[in-house]
Amino acid sequence: MDMPEVIPVCYCGNPTKLNMTWSNDNPGRRFFGCKKFGSGFRKPYWFFTWFDPPLTPSS
C-alpha cells in the first residue's frame, strides 16, 4: 500500500486523515478527509480529496 509523501491540511488548519470508503461506487478507495468530520464540525470547512485514482470497471 503506497503511503502519501505529503499529508494535506484541511481548511480548518488541521492535518487530514487517510480514510477508506466502502461505498458501492468506490469500494476500498482511499481519500483524505478532515479529522473533525462527523464531530459536528461545520461542513464548509471540511476538506476532501481522493488519494487513490478512480476505479476501473472489472471485466
UniProtKB/TrEMBL annotation:
PANTHER family assigned to the protein according to its UniProt record, in alphabetical order: ZINC ION-BINDING PROTEIN (PTHR33248)
Protein name, entry field: GRF-type domain-containing protein
Domain GRF-type: 10-54
GO molecular function: zinc ion binding
Keywords linked to the UniProt accession: Metal-binding, Zinc, Zinc-finger
Organism field: Gossypium klotzschianum
Claim: Metal-binding is one of the keywords in the record: yes
